[in-house]
């Protein structure tokens, strides 16, 4: 899987259960943009555990995405 690749430093995801489990398993930090169903709960739990940050897709801009990515990559967790 892509998050298991040694060059994968960050994963941008919608927060579905399979992608969330994969990111947790490989210890890859995430930027999450949940859309519906279980995604909101999955993303909230991952954010609470320090795996990454949620960025609502309804309000995303290039600048917000850039800042969020930088924040996640520079967080030593």
Automatic annotation (TrEMBL):
The keyword Acyltransferase does not apply. InterPro entries: UDP-glycosyltransferase (IPR050271), UDP_glucos_trans (IPR002213). One of its GO terms (molecular function) is UDP-glycosyltransferase activity. Gene3D superfamilies: Glycogen Phosphorylase B. Keywords: Glycosyltransferase, Transferase. It holds the Pfam family UDPGT. Belongs to the UDP-glycosyltransferase family. This is 2-hydroxyacylsphingosine 1-beta-galactosyltransferase-like. The gene is LOC108252894.
């Amino acid at each position: 899987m892509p998050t298991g690749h040694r060059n994968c430093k960050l994963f941008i995801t919608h927060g579905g259960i399979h992608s969330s489990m994969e990111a947790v398993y490989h210890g890859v930090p995430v930027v999450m943009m949940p859309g519906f169903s279980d995604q909101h709960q999955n993303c909230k739990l991952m954010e609470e555990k320090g795996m990454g940050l949620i960025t609502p897709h309804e309000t995303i801009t290039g600048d917000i995405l850039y800042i969020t990515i930088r924040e996640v990559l520079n967080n030593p967790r």
